[in-house]
Design brief:
Layout: H1 4-52, E1 54-57, E2 60-63, E3 79-83, E4 88-91, E5 114-121, E6 130-137, H2 138-190, H3 205-245, H4 250-272, E7 280-281, H5 282-292, E8 301-305, E9 310-311, H6 315-332, E10 336-344, E11 347-354, H7 384-394, E12 398-404, E13 406-414
Parallel strand pairs: 8-10
Antiparallel strand pairs: 1-2, 3-4, 3-6, 5-6, 7-9, 10-11, 11-13, 12-13
Helix pairs in contact: 1-2, 3-4, 4-7, 5-6, 6-7
């Protein structure tokens, strides 16, 4: 069983059942002893009454009686008899014309099982040893025990149900803090909060502290990686410029430049992972990008239709993805570019569409390859769409290209809900 809640409830239910069964066995044994002792005391009282009223009158043993009407009712199951070892010399009226045998061990006259007690004594007027046997129906004893133990079993069953219900409530309330912690982690991942709130439950506080340290360390690692990549890019610009000014092969310079750009971008995305707790408004990024591209778009008409969307990730990453798509659209568009967006649950969809020549259906996959340039006459490194595809994978999103009139590139990315 992989569920913590299921394990706790199963363990609680199992041991509750074991404890109640053991309790039922113990209490039922006590009740059986009590009932058996009570009826035994009744038989003892009858025996004392019979022995106290027994007296020899010549050869006849006269008995005053048990003083209990059950022993006077024929075949009632309640019997007494006195035997001298060879024959029955006195008996209760309830035995009618039968007896329990000289040893008092015979079945009752109606064939019923009997619970019996035998006592040896002597009666006044003769010192001969006598045996008094007092018997009662075994069914009466069993019925009385059942009358007490059945309600006990029902009461324990109700108690068990109540204990299991209490366990379910207790476990559910106990795990609610874990559910709140899970919700806080999801909020950090979605960018609604920057760190986990410290729970009131003492056992979960160390976990929350450690996770907050992990989040801060993740941000620190990302910042250091970006700084190193920026430093490397700056360090490489000067040597490449010197090579270009020195008359080196332009194709070789372009190839080196594409390769360096590619590996720098790869290093950035691979070293970054996915930053936790970051959110970026899409409109703000789009406004900045359009301001940068404004001079190149003088001959184009731009239409935009976006609801208020918030990206659950780094601003620089959204600028990189959306910027590459816009640059491609500006480069290839004939007269018009459309930027649209929509939200779908926890996802947002951004589409950049141009009315340029588009890409043949068979070339769509190749367009995402590193350094692929479908038209060598147009300047570029061939890295734009490949870089976008890499960044999209970091955010577990998707980049879709669709050919038609022009080209439509759609980004599917995680959406941050409003705080």
């Amino acid at each position: 069983m992989n569920s913590l809640r299921g394990r706790l409830l199963a363990f609680s239910a199992l041991w509750t059942a074991v404890a109640l069964v053991l309790a039922w066995m113990f209490i039922a044994a006590l009740l059986r002893d009590f009932v058996t002792g009570r009826f035994g005391a009744e038989l003892d009282a009858v025996a004392e009454s019979v022995m106290g009223g027994a007296e020899w009158r010549g050869d006849v043993l006269a008995v005053a009686g048990a003083g209990d009407p059950r022993f006077d009712t024929p075949l009632s199951g309640w019997y007494w008899q006195i035997a001298d070892g060879s024959e029955v010399v006195a008996k209760s009226d309830s035995l009618w014309t039968s007896d329990l045998g000289p040893l008092g061990a015979a079945m009752g006259p109606d064939g019923a099982e009997l619970s019996r007690k035998a006592v040896g004594f002597t009666a006044p007027g003769d010192g001969a040893p006598l045996t008094l046997t007092v018997a009662m129906p075994e069914s009466v004893l069993a019925r009385e025990i059942a009358r007490i133990t059945r309600p006990l079993a029902l009461a324990l069953a109700v108690l068990g149900f109540g204990l299991v219900a209490a366990s379910v409530i207790g476990v559910t309330l106990g795990l609610r803090t874990l559910n709140r912690l899970r919700g806080s982690i999801e909020a950090v991942r979605a960018g609604r909060i920057d760190s986990l709130p410290i729970p009131e439950t003492a056992e979960l506080r160390p976990l929350a502290h450690e996770m907050n340290r992990l989040i801060e360390e993740n941000r620190s690692v990302i910042a250091r990686a970006r700084a190193h990549v920026g430093n490397l890019a700056h360090a490489l610009k000067t040597p490449l410029a010197a090579l270009a000014n020195g008359g080196a092969d332009p194709d070789l310079i372009a190839r080196m430049d594409r390769t360096l750009r590619w590996h720098l971008k790869r290093a950035r995305t691979a070293g970054q992972g996915r930053s936790l707790g970051q959110t970026t408004p899409v409109d703000a990024v789009l406004d900045d990008l359009l301001q940068v591209l404004d001079r190149d778009m003088e001959h184009l008409t731009l239409t935009r239709d976006l609801p208020p969307l918030v990206f659950a990730g780094e601003r620089e990453d959204l600028e990189e993805m959306l910027g590459n798509l816009l640059e491609n659209a500006v480069k290839w568009a004939a007269s018009r570019i459309e930027v649209t967006g929509r939200m779908d649950g926890a996802l947002l969809h951004l589409t950049v569409r141009d009315d340029g020549p588009g890409i043949a259906q068979d070339d769509l996959a190749a367009a995402l390859s590193r350094g692929a340039r479908l038209d060598e006459a147009v300047p570029g490194s061939g890295l734009g769409l490949a870089i976008v595809a890499d960044l999209v994978q970091v955010y577990e999103g998707q980049l879709d290209l669709s050919a038609g009139p022009g080209l439509a590139a759609t980004l599917t990315l995680p959406r941050a809900r409003s705080r």
